[in-house]
Request: fold
Amino acid sequence: MSIQSINVRNQFRGRVREIIEGPVVSEVEVETPSGLVVSSVITTRSVKELGLAPGREVIALVKASEVAIAAL
Amino acid sequence: MSIQSINVRNQFRGRVREIIEGPVVSEVEVETPSGLVVSSVITTRSVKELGLAPGREVIALVKASEVAIAAL
Amino acid sequence: MSIQSINVRNQFRGRVREIIEGPVVSEVEVETPSGLVVSSVITTRSVKELGLAPGREVIALVKASEVAIAAL
Amino acid sequence: MSIQSINVRNQFRGRVREIIEGPVVSEVEVETPSGLVVSSVITTRSVKELGLAPGREVIALVKASEVAIAAL
Amino acid sequence: MSIQSINVRNQFRGRVREIIEGPVVSEVEVETPSGLVVSSVITTRSVKELGLAPGREVIALVKASEVAIAAL
Amino acid sequence: MSIQSINVRNQFRGRVREIIEGPVVSEVEVETPSGLVVSSVITTRSVKELGLAPGREVIALVKASEVAIAAL
Reply:
């Protein structure tokens, strides 16, 4: 599943694993079914408005221009 | 495996699936072993300097502050 | 109206005014009802997948961490 | 009015409506004359150096590459 | 010298060394007096509106939240 | 010296000058040999995982698409 109406190419669906809440921003960790963990920093206001909590199903989104590449 | 010395929390290891090359920037698609596709836009200079081509093993990196969250 | 399920605080609803299409990325200008113009650079693939064209109703989204402030 | 010498295409002029101050970063809300609210997360050091406070006239700036588009 | 009214902490003053112009975005290389080269991708419209050309004095600006750190 | 395998064009080598630690994110200031100061906001988790402290040698990295240009 994905948010089809948005241009953001990178969408990682999973569940919230952990939230570290700060006064202004919080770190939200999302785990996908395949075990991939995606870490996000968003405003604590957004955490509350979205009702985020461990176990909550979410999609992590990243614009392609924000992705760097390292060669191995 | 990961680049352990960098602070970027989100590292997706995979192989280059496709490159759409433009005069200034190019779109690079990376596919992870679990089938996840991560899309990146980087300078075409970097594509050449890194010697990127389909099949090449790479890591896609994203800063946590660039990741948005959508609730389902 | 807004996309309520996403954490992105800044949502500007409007219509596509102009698209400058390039081989990899395109510039999309969105005009809000109050006359504000928001400019976006996204992949040309996304422009096509979303079926963007002048007059199309869209929402421009910006993460709060991407907004700089200048004092007057 | 705008900062004409900068390449940032998206400039939203308004007044600071609210500041949520944290130890490292703060959230600054800017309201434009047409009632649009733009939210920004910047360092608390910058908040102090710029002398930001509710009512202060500011410009919120966003690079076009940071703007995502959702179709309605 | 710097743009004192903006919150962007990282300001690198220098001269344009090279511009690679594309149909939508261009790469602009800025060289500081100490020989540091900063590379920027901005819209080609902005390149034209700012009248950028090799030798032109400019400031490259980066928000602190966009800077990653690698340990050596 | 630089991290040659990564596409990030802008790499500023230096030493950590100061760290302002917050509960979720921290501000890290890096000073280059030529006296340039680069400011970064990263997660406090990363600060700890990388073992960052004043005097530590690091590289500050910035994607070219995150760099804005102001004309003088």
User: Anything to note?
Assistant: The beta strands of chain E are 10-21, 25-31, 37-43, 57-62, 68-71.
